[in-house]
Amino acid sequence: MASMFARLFIVTPKFHSPLKPSNFRHSTPPPFLISPRTTKFRCAETSISVIRAISSVDVVTKTSAIEPGRAVESESLPSDVRKRAMDAINSSGRRVTTGDVASNTGLNLHEAQKALQALATDTSACLEVSDDGDVLYVFPEDYRLKLAAKSFWIRTEPFLEKGKMATGYLVRASFGTALIASIVLVYATIIAIALFSEKDDNGVGSFCDSLTNVYFRPNGLFRYPRQQVKKGDGEMSFIESIFSFVFGDGDPNHGTEEERWKLIGQYIALHGGVVTAEELAPYLDVETKIMDDDSYILPVLLRFNGQPEIDEEGNILYLFPSLQRTASLQRSGLKEYVRWADRAEGVDKFFKENKWQFSKTNFSARAMVIGLGGFNLLGIVILGSMLNMTTNPDGFISFVSNIFPLLQIYAASFFVIPLIRWLLIQNMNAKIIKRNRAREQRAKALDSPNLSLIRKLLNARDMAQKTFISQDKIVYSTDKDLYEQGYETQEWDRRFEKIESCD
């Protein structure tokens, strides 16, 4: 069964040919890169796998290839992809295949391969090739420190994340503070206009100056909400609760899509790389009614390079060769049928989406926000009618009159946006509940399968296999010279000559 192999460099060779070890009589590594492709040569007495090499002589490296020393390749990776790949490397003992990283992170095989290539280039990782042509990546113990020392951008990422969090807080706090400022401006202007007819110009100016001193000092306006609302552990401040009421608290399923693919990858690898569609249905978006249509599994086949297989009874099983070969000691595919809860030990029985919340604020904070928003809207209505009756406003009143359209937009959006958001949330939650119910039904069907499904599951377990690539299967490693790796040059030459005589 063919394995999926990762190509380290994209090159355009002028020729491909088996190279004899006797052609390289020196102590440095040979001038070729081991290609992850094996070719079977068969004659009357010989059937061996020869690792083909790509000559480094007269080859043209494409510009899209990874070229060591030119740049820090890991910086081109998305931050979350790089972090997930590094976590998988650590959990696997720093000796991994592309399939190991894909199954432990949920990354598709192309992303996992690209991440491993970039990290290996930047951290001087060792590459090993097995006798079946599998490429393994062996990272040094201090590879994280090496990567951080090489890349200024990666070193500053934690500080940028903290800066992003601080910026997010400032945005939320600014929107909440704007409500308090709007109330102060609106009602201060109402009072000023009411006194305008009773006071002369000096009086009005003095009055407006006093309003500025009272309401716009930092220890007056900005500290007011924090003094009135206590902030407990894990709770948001009153200023933040204003933003939460209007705009919500973000996607509750942020990051769960990556977790979904991680669950699927782990489940396939745990079961020897051969599964049925019914086993993966609890993790995918399926219809409530159970049908024989397996089209929902296509995204999994594309992501993990799977392929359908027909068993002896005509059932369709799904094979994932890339997840069957590992550099980490793991238990092999389960051969006997067991109940779903036992078979999926350590893996969630089905993928559950979180429902959207209107706001995470508690009832009292929400009531206070609505009250202040209503109070501000009432003031906008009153101030609008008063400004229409005011002629030739000046000073403070003129300033508020100029920004009054902005105050109207703020006051209206304070209730329009939450209303629209509430309607959308009802619709989204109804769909989430439907999808969760469908996945739960598929999980229950696996927990109590019929005889036909049991036989299908048993056939999948019989076809399952897990190949551990041990050190004794390694035929080439980049951290050693060719003649330090146990090759018998004369024996290799004899095999090549025998192969050539068969042609």
UniProtKB/TrEMBL annotation:
Residues that span the membrane, as ranges:
175-196, 367-387, 407-425
InterPro entries per record: At5g03900-like
Q: Which domain of life is it from?
A: Eukaryota
Sorted alphabetically, the keyword list is: Membrane, Transmembrane, Transmembrane helix
The name on file for this protein is Iron-sulfur cluster biosynthesis family protein
Name the species this protein comes from: Penstemon smallii
Q: What high-level taxonomic lineage is stated for the organism? A: Eukaryota, Viridiplantae, Streptophyta, Embryophyta, Tracheophyta
